[in-house]
Amino acid sequence: MALYDITLPLHSRMVVWPGDPEFRLWPVVEPDEDNPFTVSEMHLSTHTGTHVDAPRHILGQGPGVETLPLDVCLGPVRVVDVRGVSAVTASVLEGIGLEPTARLLFLTDNTVLGLVHDSHFHEDFVALTEDGAQWLVDRGVRLVGIDYFSIARYGEEVGVHRILLAAGVVIVEGLDLTAIAPGEYELLCLPLKIVAADGAPARVVLRDINPTSGTTPRSKG
User: Number of structural domains, the chain?
Assistant: First the structure.
């Protein structure tokens, strides 16, 4: 079965959320005639690149990322095609006839436009609305991911994050769905186990369990 790495690479020129520290990597130990090793230091936000949000991100002293249940981060997942809409609302979710499932990843026009790989931050990215978030919670969704750096629209982050994280929904942001078609997959999402952290970078992989999945998505129309 094919594996698809949907993790963004970390590098010094990557886009970060406005106000967050830029990713930096530099050597602190370099090889010489007495030492064969290289050791580097990293500087980054807990929400750099492909990452997972923990309740502590919005709920003050809520649980940290090390408490997230691995059984939620691993298992069957549906990649849902919501291309062609400016926001993922409750009415959009109702309109596509979405069946209840534990894990959902949203393929949006963010992927079509290549926003996640762009060298600039885009404020008008497609994201989930508050009523869309509540729709997911009401139907028992336990993990939701999206193809840009926030599950919520720019300037409207608080409400959506609070609805999802207060309900124990795991949020995965910054997914690279460029080579992924809508369909059923197995999700493997492992955030770094950082005690009391509000989030953490993650390596996220899809395993193809459907022979019709895994093709490059095409624009509608």
Answer: 1
Whether 64 shows a pLDDT value over 50: the answer reads yes
Q: Is residue 215 part of a domain?
A: no
pTM exceeds 0.70, yes or no:
yes
What single string gives the DSSP state of each residue in 163-219? HHHHTT-EEEESB--TT--SEEEEEEEEE---TT-SEEEEEEEEEE-STT-SSPP--
In a domain, 187, yes or no: yes
What CATH number has the domain bearing residue 77?
A: 3.50.30.50
pLDDT at 220: 42
Catalytic residue ranges: 57
pLDDT of res. 221: 39
Which contiguous run of DSSP H or E holds residue 27?
strand 24-29
Residue 197 lies in a domain: yes
Distance from C-alpha of 107 to C-alpha of 109, rounded to nearest angstrom = 7
- Which phi-psi region, left, alpha or beta, contains residue 33 (left: φ > 0; alpha: ψ -120 to 50)? alpha
Report the pLDDT value the prediction gives residue 147, as an integer from 0 to 100: 98
For residues 176 and 111, what is the distance between their CA atoms, to the nearest angstrom? 7
Q: How far is CA 26 from the centre of its chain?
A: 26
Q: What is the mean pLDDT of the chain?
A: 93
143: containing domain: 3-208
The token pair that represents 39 in the structure block: 């050791």
